[in-house]
Please model this.
Amino acid sequence: MNEHTSKKFDTELEGIRTRVLQMGGMVELQIVKAMEGLSDGDLLLIDQVIENDNRVNLLEIELDEACNQVIAKRQPTAVDLRMISTVQKTITDLERIGDEAKKIAKTAKQIHTAVSPFMPQIRLSHIADAVVDMLRTSLDAYARLDTISAAQVVRQDKEVDAEFKGIMRQLITYMMEDPRTISQAIELMFVAKSVERIGDHSKNIAEYVVYMVKGRDVRHTSLEEIEREATR
Model:
């Protein structure tokens, strides 16, 4: 590959990388707005989240196509191919995070249009803040090729899973003590599950960063192994 072609290739890769981070920022905002809509009952905000999901989907398709074009035209080396593969996996997880934000918004709409007085007093803001932080950290790790931060996200996911189980127990207690809360408690279970899944997808992105930098696929390995690999 001559110098001119090489520079053009680097520019293409940098453009893709920048757009992945833009997509990440977009889905992060989707989560924040969906949770705000759930908390405040702002139906306009909720509808905005549902409509904006199409923009996230479109960006995934555009980025996937850009990656395929690079592979077809440039015949990238093993390292660059790893980066492109990471991008394709990352945008799939970002699109799924967008889907979960849309689900939260749709559930929020059902909750606030039903206006039931029997709403379990469960705070989901803490777990939602935690997964937004996980997403932000994993994208930052992707931008800076920072495997230490990526491993931290995997550790955070364990805490989110524990908090999710605690929320489930609380909601089951509400339903047992007052059957009138069952309908709304089930809706909140769906929201909590979506938040927990956002954590899982953020963890996936962090694991892809370790693969991109270190060349080792750390999915389905222990936290300790991931931390060891990240610090090598």
Observations:
- The CA atoms of residues 78 and 211 lie 12 Å apart.
- The first helix runs from residue 3 to 40.
- Residues 3-231 form a domain with the Methane Monooxygenase Hydroxylase; Chain G, domain 1 fold (CATH 1.20.58.220).
